[in-house]
Write a structure and sequence with these properties.
This protein has helices spanning about 45-55, 95-105, 110-125, 140-150, 170-185, 200-205, 220-225, 230-235, and strands at about 5-10, 25-30, 35-40, 60-65, 70, 80-85, 160, 190-195, 205-210, 215-220, 240-245, 260-265, 270, 285-295, 300-305, 310-315, 330-335, 335-340, 345-350. By secondary structure, it is of the alpha+beta class. The two termini are about 45 Å apart.
Length: about 350
C-alpha cells in the first residue's frame, strides 16, 4: 500500500466524554495512483482525516505511512503533500504564472526549472493563454484549475482536495470534475478528495470510503458500495432509498417485524396500471397502491406510492403514460436490503424467478 492509515483516532481537547471522537480507529490502505473519495455527511470526520494525512493536525492515536515511511513526526512540507482547498486560496496579487510557481520559488528552484515546470502545468490545465491574468480576472472553474496546477507544481507524493468543487456552479462542476479525474490519472498522482456529494464521488473516484460519526462504514468501488451496501447507512447515503422498520403484506416476501432495517431503492420497485394488457400476467405478483406524489426529474418521473401503509419510491421513463396523484396502480417489489447488527442481507421476491418482468 502506498498510503496506510493504522488505527487513526482524533480526539479534540474540548470533546466531552459522552461525545464521539472526530475520527475513531480508522484503518485504510490506498494503492499508488488511486483516486479516493472520502464521502459522508457534515461532521463525519472527512476533513479531519484529510488534515491528519496532510500533517495539519496530529492524530491522537495511530500511525500514518506514506510509501512505507511513518510520517507522524514529519511536517506538512516534508510529507510532500499537495493540498487544494475549496476556496482556491490563490494569492490575489499574483498572476496565474506566479501562483503556480510559488511552491517552486519557495524551494529555490532555478528560473529555468520553474519556467519549464510552470509551462508544462499551464499546458496541462489548458490556461497558458491566461498566464498573466490575476485570480479576480478568472472564472471559478479557471481558478480551481490554477489551484490544481499549483498543488502539482512541486510533484507531491499525495494530492489532497477538500471539497474542491463546492464554490463552483453545478454545470461547471460536472465538467470540471471529469476533467480533474482525467488529469489526475494522466499525472498518476495518488489522490484523495473530500465530498458529501454522492454523485460527485461516483463520477470521479476509483474507490469510495464512507464515513459516519468518525468511523469507516464501508470502502469499495462505486459499483460495489452501491450494489452491495454493508450497513443501512451506506445503503441510504448512496442513492435514494426508503427505510422501513417492518415489511408486511408484500407479495413474494415474508413479513419482517423484528426491528431490522429494511432499505428499498427506487430501482427495486415497478408500478403499472392493471388495465394494461401487457402487464396482466404480473398482477398476481403485485400489490395495490395509491400514488401520493409525482415528481418530475428531467429525464424521468419519480412516483411516491403508498402500499400497505408504507410509502415507496419508484421511477418511470418519460416515454410511458403520465401518472396522476391519487391514481391506483399495481406495485411490484423486486428485492429489499435488510440490515441488522450482524450485517447485510438481500431478499429477492421469490415469486418472480420464472416471470417475465421486462419494462420500458
Amino acid at each position: 500500500m502506498y498510503l496506510e492509515l493504522k488505527n487513526i483516532t482524533k480526539r479534540f481537547a474540548d470533546t466531552r466524554p459522552e461525545e464521539p471522537d472526530a475520527v475513531s480507529h480508522v484503518d485504510l490502505g490506498i494503492e499508488k495512483g488511486e483516486l479516493i473519495a472520502l464521502l459522508g455527511p457534515s461532521g463525519s470526520g472527512k476533513t479531519t482525516l484529510l488534515r491528519m494525512i496532510a500533517g495539519l493536525d496530529a492524530p491522537t492515536e495511530g500511525e500514518i505511512y506514506i510509501d512505507g515511511e511513518c510520517v507522524n513526526d514529519l511536517s506538512p512540507a516534508d510529507r510532500r503533500v499537495g493540498f487544494v482547498f475549496q476556496n482556491y486560496a490563490l494569492f490575489r496579487y499574483m498572476t496565474v504564472y506566479e501562483n503556480v510557481a510559488f511552491g517552486l520559488d519557495v524551494q529555490k528552484r532555478s528560473k529555468d526549472e520553474v519556467r519549464k515546470r510552470v509551462g508544462e502545468l499551464l499546458d496541462l490545465i489548458e490556461l497558458s493563454h491566461l498566464r498573466d491574468r490575476y485570480p479576480n480576472q478568472l472564472s471559478g472553474g479557471q481558478r480551481q484549475r490554477v489551484a490544481f496546477a499549483r498543488a502539482l507544481a512541486t510533484q507531491p507524493a499525495l494530492l489532497l482536495l477538500d471539497e474542491p468543487f463546492a464554490a463552483i456552479d453545478a454545470k461547471v462542476r460536472k465538467e470540471l470534475r471529469r476533467w480533474l479525474r482525467e488529469m489526475i490519472h494522466e499525472v498518476g498522482v495518488t489522490s484523495i478528495f473530500v465530498t458529501h456529494d454522492q454523485e460527485e464521488a461516483v463520477d470521479m473516484a476509483d474507490r469510495i470510503v464512507i464515513l459516519k460519526d468518525g468511523k469507516l462504514e464501508q470502502a469499495g468501488s462505486p459499483y460495489d458500495v452501491y450494489k452491495n451496501p454493508k450497513t443501512a447507512f451506506s445503503a441510504t447515503f448512496m442513492g435514494d432509498s426508503v427505510v422501513l422498520d417492518k415489511l408486511c403484506g408484500f407479495t413474494g416476501f415474508e413479513d419482517i417485524t423484528d426491528g431490522r432495517k429494511i432499505v428499498i431503492r427506487p430501482e427495486y420497485v415497478e408500478a403499472f396500471r392493471d388495465d394494461n394488457p401487457k402487464f396482466h400476467h404480473l398482477i398476481p405478483y403485485s400489490n395495490e397502491g395509491i400514488v401520493r406524489d409525482v415528481v418530475f426529474r428531467g429525464d424521468s418521473v419519480e412516483l411516491i406510492i403508498e402500499v400497505n401503509g408504507e410509502r415507496l419510491m419508484c421511477r418511470r421513463s418519460m416515454e410511458r403514460r403520465p401518472v396522476s396523484t391519487g391514481e391506483k396502480m399495481r406495485v411490484l417489489l423486486y428485492r429489499v436490503n435488510v440490515f441488522d447488527e450482524e450485517g447485510a442481507q438481500v431478499l429477492a421476491n421469490e415469486t418472480l424467478q420464472d416471470v417475465d418482468v421486462e419494462f420500458m
